Amino acid sequence: MRMLLSYITAVLAGLGQIACAGNPLATNDQRDLDALAIDLSQSDAFDFLRDAARAKFISRLKKFGKPIDDDINSDIDVAIDELVFSSIQKAVNNDPAYPKVYWTDAPPRPDHWFGLSVPGGRYSYDNPDCIYRTIPISDKYKYKIHGRRAANAPLDVTFSLISNPNSQNTVSSLMGEDLQVEEDGSFTITISSEDSDSKNHIKSNWQAVQLFVRNNLADWNKDTPDELSVEIVDNKGAKPATNDTIINQAKTNLAESIFFYGFGALDVKTFLNPLNELQKPTQSQILGTLTTQASSFGHFNLAEDEAIVVTLSSGQATYWVLPVYSLGMVTHSPWENIVSFNSKQAKQNNNGTYTFVVSQTDPGVYNWANTTARTQGTIMGRWQGLSTEGDGTDGIEVSSSIVKLSDLPRILPEETVYVDAEQRQEQVQERIQGYNRIHFQ
């Protein structure tokens, strides 16, 4: 009864907004799946795994000598809460016979989102620029993905068939630059186990279980996610999943995530790298990375008067982003803190490179990545739109060094753009306005 009431409340609250919001993320399916995920998240079925996930993350931090203070404990609590909710979100949209388009790996959303208060579901290096959406698929069925692209399209778009919603290994993909879009912005993508001459076809196989869609928005005040809907060609005789099935799948997702993210992403990809240093990025196709993406992982421990100065180049990437994360691999309130820069937002050096200052204390530099008063955290830089033939990282360079804040004027390029307190506030307000436009309106 409680779930039915919450569902009805969501329907009544959302009907008017669906018609007038003009937000491609504000769909009936989104409303229904969010309401169901919220209701299922109240179950005590996740308590044991929630505690196990927290213990796992803390053990990894201690193994690598990370001091556990109040900030770290708080950050891990946030990361685990969002990891649990993300596991439920993956499960509520996991029926390939009844597929829906679902926006996941998203920040917490306020009460005016269909009258719901939706918890955050970010995990394992969320990207503040990216709108992630999922569609369950099976090679037993044929699908049509209908879309419409706005005039201010995302800078980078990918449609990836993956073999596991937690490890996200890529089976096949369609890149945005290869997508055939009609003059009115509409497009249709077909998915099946059959071959096709269509440019907009993705071939599935027995491994593929989900279409994972990324829309990377570089200009938050202009770029708009694609409209997306899904049509299954024939699901005759298929019965929808029960709530018990969904809860069991969510528990499986959470158990796998504890391993893939607590060990794979945190240990292997991050903590094995040198402290306070970013390496040249490498390409991969596991743990959420794209075959056309290169990534550089790092972790830091900075005193209040210290900073990491990072200089990078774009190489052949069509889009890149450099965010700062907690030790739980989640960005700190990216809707109100400048914790990331992308290829559109950052100020460029005269030689075409970009230089950033990562620190607790505001250094008065435009390209400042704020650790939000945290002494410790992680970094994951991404470069996308790269070739999968040969080494796509050719031309991408990354250098980093730890310095005293007092030494920055001597170290930073002469053309570095500085800001005063008023200009910083304007920069933050522009970020808030852009983030709200995409995520909350």
UniProtKB/TrEMBL annotation:
InterPro entries: DUF1214. It comes from the Eukaryota. Keywords: Signal. Residues 1-21 form the signal peptide. Residues 159-207, 309-374 form the DUF1214 domain. This is DUF1214 domain-containing protein. It comes from Helicocarpus griseus UAMH5409. The lineage of its organism: Eukaryota, Fungi, Dikarya, Ascomycota, Pezizomycotina.
